[in-house]
Specification:
230 residues, binds magnesium ion
Length: 230
Amino acid sequence: MGDLYALDFDGVLCDNCGETAISAVKAAKLRWPELFTTVDSSTEDWIVDQMQTVWPVVETGYETLLLVRLLLEIKIPLLQRSSVTKGLTVEGILETWSANRFYPGFPDALRFASSQLYIVTTKQGRFADALLRELAGVTIPPERIYALGSGPKVEVLKMLQKQPEHQGLTLHFVEDRLATLKNVIKEPELTGWNLYLVDWGYNTQKEREEAATYSRIHLLQLSDFTQKLK
Ligand SMILES: [Mg+2]
């Protein structure tokens, strides 16, 4: 009957944390101008750089703003307004992780996919759409992009599986956040979904090891995935 893929965006299709880190620093400067009066450009560069390290903790955009503040307080303890960051280091926020910077094979996989594709993301739909067009040269119709404002991902999956035109399709949900997959496992209605944690996105080795203990979660490698999509 065919397959339906619900794909997360950041960390699955697209690695854009560098660009987003720069935007987060800009937003933090607007939000807390008083904190940035003594911050020089090398400190800003350091923050952008460190954002890439702490990226796996980010779920939605606004959290990047808080991370910028956290990093700033770590770098310049004098700026601390609370005890939240006392004794905290970048290493302490996250264990070291590695991630590929590019996810090759996607533009073609998306373009030639014979499966039904949906994007399910916590980023803004217009950004996902623009990045898909510009980076991948792919246009995904807006009704196939469930973005910020579409509700929790578990609700999006429930809605997708109920649609009459999806009956009989094999359902696949691909994510780079283990916590999101665990939320799906908790939902009795969603037992029909095959769940995948990608091994190239914004997750840690520890999370991948934990994922392996869940019988419902399959670890996915990039080349397998781009093959699967076609
Ligand atoms: Mg993601």
